[in-house]
Amino acid sequence: MRKITLLLFCLCLCGCSAQGSLDGRLQAACTQASALTINVHADNVKDLYSYYVEPGVGRRNSTASSNVFVLDNQEFIMNLNIAEIVNVKLYDQTQSVTLPQGERWLSVSEGEFADVQGRTQKYAAGLMAAANGQVMVMVKTPYFTFTGLSNETGAPALAGEMIKIARTATVDEDAVLKAYSSRTKISYVKENLNLFEDEIPENGRLEEMMPNKPVHTGGDIDQSGETFDDGTSADDLPLNENDDDIQTPSESE
Where is this region: Disordered (predicted)? Predict the structure, then answer.
């Protein structure tokens, strides 16, 4: 009986130690990313926003309001928070940065950072268990929501990379309003999820949004940028992107 009790006690200690280690690593990664000096200029310019990514971060694909990046064979999504931006600007809603409630987060870190324009923004970063032993990483800021899958070892660093990208980003709020608001009612933004090809669903568990992607097992990943359906490489395009897929809602909506 004494041996069993000691074994259970050791297992509890190991579990607490692992949790403490994950919390500490997430907090350290987020704090470090928030404290870095920003001395870069946006190298990806879109109609609604611009941002900078380090050379080690590749881009799988892009839409007017989202981007899919890859870092060390880990894909993560950057979505523009269009509904929140419109609601805050036009309908006097309070700007808040919170992770989805009701989820079993393994670790959460909240704080502030100064963006490239010198403005202070809040952020919330969270890690949650996903399928096949993976960890879902989420970082929310007032203007963007990042989500991705990683292993437990790399998850805190991925959260830090998300914060670094968010700090370099600038958003043209007037362009967002012009493209996505009729100034009458914007509930359609939440209902028509086709506006956000990679957006998080309004209902359901977060892990349902992340498909079980196969692990990259061979070949080099093109870290240089986006490749389009017609085979054109982003390296052959001018720096400023023209996002033709922005659709301005009609008055009937």
Answer: 204-253
The sign one gets for the Cα dihedral 78, 80, 83, 88 is: positive
- Asked if 115 and 33 count as a contact pair (C-beta separation under 8 A), the reply is no
Crossing angle between the packed helical segments 155-168 and 2-35, to the nearest 10 degrees:
20
Are the C-beta atoms of residues 210 and 44 closer than 8 Å to each other?
no
pLDDT tens for 99-148 read 998 889 999 999 999 999 999 999 999 999 999 999 999 999 999 999 99
Other CB atoms within 10 A of residue 70 CB: 18
Residue tagged 């130690």 (tokens) = 17
Architecture of domain 20-181: 3-Layer(aba) Sandwich (3.40)
Residue 253 in contact with residue 188, Cβ under 8 Å? yes
Q: For the chain, what are the domain ranges?
A: 20-181
Instruction: Give residue 92's pLDDT.
Output: 78
pTM: 0.68
Task: Give whole-number Cα distances, 51 to 19, 169, 242, in Å.
Answer: 33, 4, 15
**In sequence order, which residues have a C-beta less than 8 Å from that of residue 178 and are 6 or more positions away?**
248
